[in-house]
Amino acid sequence: MREGDLVEKIHISGIEAEIRKFFELKMMLLRDFKEGILDDVEKEAIKRNCDVIRIRNCNELDSYFYKSTKIGLYRNLQKPLELANLPRNKRGNIKKAEGNFNFFITENMTDYIFNEWFQIYEERMNEIKRGVKILNRDWFEEKRNKAVGAFSKKDNQIVGGFIILLMDESNTTIPSLAFGSSKKEFFKLGINDFLVWNIINWATEKGFKRIKFGTDTNFYGFHLGLGIYHYKIGWGFYPEARGVMECLKILDFSKFEDKIFFLTGNENLQGNILFRKGSEYKDGKRLFAENLNVINVYEFNGGIKLLETIKRNSI
After folding, report:
1. In this structure, which of 112, 132, 250, 308 has its CB flanked by the most CB atoms within 10 Å?
2. Minimal CA–CA distance to 222: which of 34, 90, 6, 25?
3. pLDDT in tens, the chain (315 residues)
4. Distance (Å, whole) CA 202 – CA 164
5. CA-CA distance, 17 to 179, in Å (whole number)?
6. What is the C-alpha separation between 215 and 137, in angstroms, rounded?
7. How far, in whole angstroms, is CA 155 from its chain's centroid?
8. Residue 209 main-chain phi, psi, to 5 deg
9. Gyration radius (Cα) of the chain, Å
10. What is the DSSP letter of 183?
11. Rounded to 5 degrees, what angle do the CA atoms 200, 204, 208 make?
12. Could you give the domains of the chain?
């Protein structure tokens, strides 16, 4: 989840803490930590009706999840993506879309093209509950020399697309699907699968070694739905820790969706799926990206209880 807006600053046992609010979620954030203050922190967080505690600059803490604030999702491009190797639903969507849309890439995006697509992005963000508008025209002006546009057209009008940012990571250039949005009425015609399929093929043909499907807040179940993660790993993308490490504890689950997912650890990542008691969840195996070997399954109902640990070699 994002840090949200600063509400106030307080001091707990000599350490400054921030009370922040992201939509209706109230969080206590400590950017520094020292031994022996955890009980005071939790008492103060409960007193102030905080839903979440987040602690930076600390080692792993008992009863807290140790996680990165963000994850990048990557796919290797050593060999071409074969249509026959895709899941049946994606193959069907791509074939359906090929009869309805035209795809084009522009590496010199004009204001007119960006604005035509940007209107779709704004409308879509307004439709989404807790939609966070990160992209704006100022961002485009700043990044336009590294921005590539990938779009679908129907009846000579842009109806969906992605803004791809050419990023420098680990001494190499990686195309990142930074922002994407399509008109909702074309979802059933497979527009999004059509776009991703063509973008991966473009990146492969250009000789890139890896492609990135953006950077997500490492927390699905509040402003980001779990379906986003499912969709990305369904295309063969795998997560890597980004951002800073923090210890997370959820005090009140009432404002979250019935399913929460995030990754713990830094290099040897583990998936963690938390579901509300009474909302059955049986899809733990679907959460395995190619670099995940463990999925921890929890149930929450006021408190939290570990139900099982699924290991890849046991599937």
Report:
1. 250
2. 25
3. 789 999 999 999 999 999 999 999 999 999 999 999 999 999 999 999 999 999 999 999 999 999 999 999 999 998 888 999 899 999 999 999 999 999 999 999 999 999 999 999 999 999 988 888 889 999 999 999 999 999 999 999 999 999 999 999 888 999 999 999 999 999 999 999 999 999 999 999 999 999 999 999 999 999 999 999 999 999 999 999 999 999 999 999 999 999 999 999 998 999 999 999 888 776 777 899 999 999 999 999 888 999 999 998 766
4. 12
5. 33
6. 20
7. 32
8. -85, -30
9. 21
10. -
11. 110
12. 1-58 (no CATH), 79-208 (3.40.630.30)
Give, in degrees to the nearest 5, the angle at Cα 216 between 197 and 127: 80
As given in the structure block, the two tokens for residue 211 are 């492609």
User: How many whole angstroms from its chain centre is CA 279?
Assistant: 23
Listed in sequence order, the DSSP H helices in the chain are 38-47, 88-98, 111-127, 137-143, 191-205, 226-234
What SS3 class is residue 168? Answer: strand
Given a contact cutoff of 8 angstroms between Cβ atoms, the answer to whether 108 and 148 are in contact is no
Model confidence pTM above 0.85: yes
Measured distance CA(248)–CA(261) in Å, rounded: 13
Tokens of 104: 């084009």
